[in-house]
Amino acid sequence: xxxxxxxxxxxxxxxxxxxxxxxxxxxxxxxxxxxxxxxxxxxxxxxxxxxxxxxxxxxxxxxxxxxxxxxxxxxxxxxxxxxxxxxxxxxxxxxxxxxxxxxxxxxxxxxxxxxxxxxxxxxxxxxxxxxxxxxxxxxxxxxxxxxxxxxxxxxxxxxxxxxxxxxxxxxxxxxxxxxxxxx
Length: 183
Description:
Layout: H1 2-9, H2 15-22, H3 27-30, E1 35-39, E2 45-50, H4 65-72, H5 75-84, E3 88-99, E4 107-112, H6 115-128, E5 130-140, E6 146-158, H7 159-179
Antiparallel strand pairs: 1-2, 2-4, 3-6, 4-5, 5-6
């Protein structure tokens, strides 16, 4: 559904406008309490703010860790989908978080890719058909004091390679199922 809405909105709006304004009002993202505050024209940089509120305050009065994870979860993947285009399959594989200190104020996350990094990703996928990208993220306050370190693992593959891989996997699964017997 979101892919269709995005395609429709792309007729009238720039991707930076779609991500900044329409993503913030989507039911998917509104529940996270995150708010996209800035998106560069090329979508290489996105700034997300996560205010501390009654919606994400835990028993101790600080920000619930799940709120931080959900507000930051889709951003790198969406950036890469836009930047790399439809020739690639992109999936979030995992995230790890190391909480440095409790968050008792608005948190900020800056998601950024460099052009050289994108070229490296394209070259690696061209050479290997699929890669996993480790992307680090710091959750800070407005002064840059770190609350949390995160590491996202993102799967990126050539779309044709991925389709063939899935097709071969399904064939293998069916062959295995045909030979299984229950005693």
